[in-house]
Amino acid sequence: MGQSITVTVNGEKKTAEVEPRLLLVHFLREKLRLTGTHIGCDTTHCGACTVLVDGTPVKSCTMLAVQADGQQVTTVEALAASGTLHPIQAAFKQEHGLQCGFCTPGMMLTSVALLQEKPDPTDDEIRWALSGNICRCTGYMNIVKAVKSAAAQMKASAAVPEAATASARS
Amino acid sequence: MLPAPFEYHAPHTTEETLELLDQLGDEGKVLAGGQSLIPLLKLRFASPAHLVDINKITDLDFLEERDGTLRIGPLFRHKSAERSSLLASRYHVMADAAPQIADPIIRNRGTIAGSVVHADPSGDWGTVLLALDADLVLRSKSGSRTVKARDFFSGPFSTTIEPTEILSEIRIPAAKPQSGGAYLKLERKVGDFATVAVAVHLQMDDGKVRSAGIGLTAVGPQNLKAERAEAALKGARLDDATIKEAAALAAEAAEPKEDHRGSVEYKRNVVRVFTERGLKRAYERARGGG
Amino acid sequence: MAVETPLKGNIGESIKRKEDDRFIRGRGNYLDDIVLPGMLHMAIHRSPFAHARIKSINTDAAQAVPGVVAVVTGALLAQHKLAWMPTLSGDTQAVLATDKVRFQGQEVACVIATDPYVARDAAMLVEVDYEVLPAVVTPQQALQPDAPLIRDEKEGQTSNHIYHWEAGDKAKTDEAFAKADRVVKLDTFYPRCHPSPLETCGIVADVNSATGHATLYMTSQAPHAHRTLFAIVAGLPEQNIRIISPDIGGGFGNKVPIYPGYVVATAASLLIGKPVKWVEDRSENLISTGFARDFHMSGEMALRNDGRILGLRVKLLSDNGAFYADAQPTKFKAGLFHIVTGSYDVAAAHVEADGAYTNKAPGGVAYRCSFRVTEASYLIERLVESAALEMNLDPADIRLKNFIQPEQFPYMSATGFEYDSGNYPKAMQLALDKLGYKELRKEQAEKRKKGELMGIGVASFTEVVGAGPGKHYDIAGLRMFDSAELRVHPTGKAILKLGVKSQGQGHETTFAQIVTEELGIPAADIEVQEGDTDNTPYGLGTYASRSTPVGGAATAMVSRKLRDKAKKIAAHLLEASEADIEFDHGKFFVRGSPSKSKTIQDVAFAAYTNLPDGMEAGLEGVTYYDPPNMTYPFGTYLVVVDIDRGTGQVKVRRMVAVDDCGVRINPMVVEGQLHGGLTEGFGIAFMQLITFDEEGNCLGSNFTDYLLPTSWETPKFEMGETVTPSPHHPIGAKGVGESATVGSPAAFVNAVIDAVGHLGIRNIDMPVTSDKVWAALSEKGAAE
Ligand SMILES: Cc1cc2nc3c(=O)[nH]c(=O)nc-3n(C[C@H](O)[C@H](O)[C@H](O)COP(=O)(O)OP(=O)(O)OC[C@H]3O[C@@H](n4cnc5c(N)ncnc54)[C@H](O)[C@@H]3O)c2cc1C
Ligand code: FES
Ligand code: FES
pTM of the prediction? Predict the structure, then answer.
């Protein structure tokens, strides 16, 4: 019953034999041991499992691993792959955008995609974009702040790339 | 929860898909955005033996206006509808509905066609298509047929589509000048299905209603078309009395059931209130405002 | 190398959290991330019925699925005397049902398999033959004389009544009512809800059959207490049990109890000899694990014509589900519900409480609250709102008139709580000013003329947290102290080990800051460890906002203990007498000559290298802190709402929250805690509901029905603070994790009632959904 798939996960090609019913989230967590992607519900509501598929946020509990064959999947583990924090990561820490951290990977990935589409979002646009990701701890206030601050940071770094990378590191 | 086992197919063309569906018959199930089907598989409310994933077919994601018709392909996703400037400028009821479907991440994958075939009485797109008087093109290996949206739905989660068919195109009469629409949805939070929603589409003609479409969500065994309300509007001037009358007729057309979202009386009232508000908003837009 | 010196981490500094570094990289280590060699997976077969007799269980089909290693039933557990376990309220609870199922979702059989998908496939194949019995779904039904007996297995149990409990002075209260000009009444129901942390509960049980050692990775808010309870339940020697509570994805009380799944997985690991993992799915979490609230309350308030409260009479009927499993101190049958006089100087009060079994999941956890103070706070704040409406008084004025005044502290309440400190009028005034209360009242009056509905809700809560003085507070007999062990290494870096356990509260940062304040070691140099019972001192855990009041106090005290020793060493190094040594933020110096000093790091090094004669080496210590009293955080919350008369939809326009939690160790973390609590309060007020149909089917069994607020609905909060230190806490802190969940639901509901009170509407029970609001309006002829 196994089916062979090749998925580019965080830039690396991964080939595996999987059962068609295997959910993408389990493929990432169990087969690839990328445990930064979490599971918080059974009904596609919480967004803890959010990853980027070809750059677009997707709930990986509601996609089959076989469907990702030939696609690019980005998980939280890729954000600081080079050793430097992504501005969104730095901002979540800086603005206290996380508490237990369980929703955080999904929140950050959705935010990254938002900032790609809208580099300078308003508070309401951020709240709207994140409304498929539930957080039980933060009350969202500081998450919104974090996304705004990452946006500012990314704008600055687009202007002066090097200075910004350095400060994201600090 | 985890799905039961099944076999998976990912054809690259529509023809291949239709061939497969023909072979599989009752055993096969089309997988589009998966945002309804995969949750059902996980809860084991559905356990088809074969899934036929259409996402690898490259020419199904389209929205285009051609020959007086707006055409929507099977892989046109909610998110594209939400971002479409064509819909925002001329198909208000669709533009209003799109961002109110599920949540932003689900909208990234879910499709309008999938939603229509899924035929959830609380789903939004069917209602919108009823208001717009859409046609659905159903294609199988042996050919294709076109059915009116109002003839498509046959009950909760049930339609007249055959297991060997796919919904290959949604066709909507192209919007003309002096048309306007609105979609009003009462939901308890983002990601919730409607408690009640109302779709309104108006085609005005020098101050009079040339045609009106009104669809109702979550107040019957399927998405409903409030045909008496539509008829009452036809040819009328949209004054307060007309609006009130149409809204009352729409409320009458609703067949809600009492549940934890509210009583029959409550839901009917929301239909009335939303029809009134929707007609006003649609009228405003038809006149070039809002 | 030049390093930019960031904040050192003294108390009051918003340093960034240390734990974040792993979470933002996806490198947290949550329970489901743990994989052990040879690990098996467990899935639970649960009852579809609320009440049914089990006639037979057939596991053949499940057993036959390839990959299934074992199927565990109650009968098998009974052979090991494990079919039942004690609860935290002195009752018993079925681990796996043997005789009857008593709630929908109850654990009936467990499948252990090599793969989680296979375990789930097989669990669905367990066949149970049931004889369905009538279900009891409300406590009122439960107490009818002819109600089906739920706990027929309990000897001597002849009804569904669990307990009767009273507090306060009945005679004195009757007297107060006799003297009253007015009596205001309110019957209200605080419905069942569920904490629903984003991570569900789970265990990886690893019992080594050769050594008998059990390592249990558990989502536990109280690992030490759980170890002891496990020793008692499973009959394992306590020294052989090691509980490790890894990173926890939120708890809010949900991870305080011991659940049947933990016990079965442990037993299975013992029997099979391999590690067994069980992780709940969301629906299992919602239908079977610790719910909260479910209190039917009636309050009567005796008042003078001028609005002064003279007395309070409260009756409570509590729905405890099928097993009385509230996590609460033994002495108190309804938790701390008797703190129901709230922020007011009420001379006489009497509380009567009764509990009943129903065919619903057990639990009664303190969902982001200190043992039922939430329900108490809700009742009193709603009652005061009713009184204001009845007597035509401004809701802020009536509160100001009745507040316990700043000079009355310490204040002994009519039901026996000694409030430590407070300044209620000040917090309220700040909130009113921030909101612009007067102008909004004007706006409201104008809107009302136009038929528009707008409301301003007020709630001034007092919390009681930090359980607690060991004399009165215990969990299953274990006194509610807490502990801290501090080891300062020769290089001046330190490890702090705690008996509490963070679930997101930021302990790794804030507890380090207490040490920084007391010893001057930068927070960055202090590693905080929690959750591993082999490596931390015994403590009762984190819930009921007790970490800062108790664990934080222990941390301050152990730091002071080390400071005392350090002073002696410093005297030795500075060749001065100990009496002349002063300490200031990490420096010891001889009084009058601050230039001649030794740092804490110098002293730490000396503690291992250059000691005064006769002194024991090292700079380490442990403290078990038994607080002399609870702490009493407080605040005023104000909410502005607009209501759509056509749909009944309530839109929260603004929310101002002024909190006083004493000294704030890390203001950023405190504010984050408050944001989270306010959001949960908002959710409880408007959407989070676990309810049941007449047959006992749970109607909140997944996130489609159990609604949690998203970023879109959640109001934007405007925060304010006052600081009234706790006089008895070593650093004056009071604990803040729960204030906002305790105080805010009443503020939201009061805002709605304030908008519609003039129409004669006095109450809408939570969750305040649009259909209920519309129905209330419609009844008064005021709906569109
Ligand atoms: C949490 C949540 C909230 C939601 N809220 C809403 C909401 O508010 N309003 C709303 O309308 N929807 C809502 N949805 C459903 C969502 O819109 C789905 O995307 C949609 O119903 C199905 O589209 P899909 O492309 O995902 O279809 P799939 O899940 O892939 O398929 C659904 C059904 O349609 C069939 N199918 C799909 N495409 C075709 C085709 N072209 N031809 C033939 N058969 C086909 C499938 O076989 C299946 O039976 C929600 C879903 C979730 C999980
Ligand atoms: S796990 Fe909740 S949406 Fe995927
Ligand atoms: S930080 Fe805990 S769920 Fe978001």
Answer: 0.96
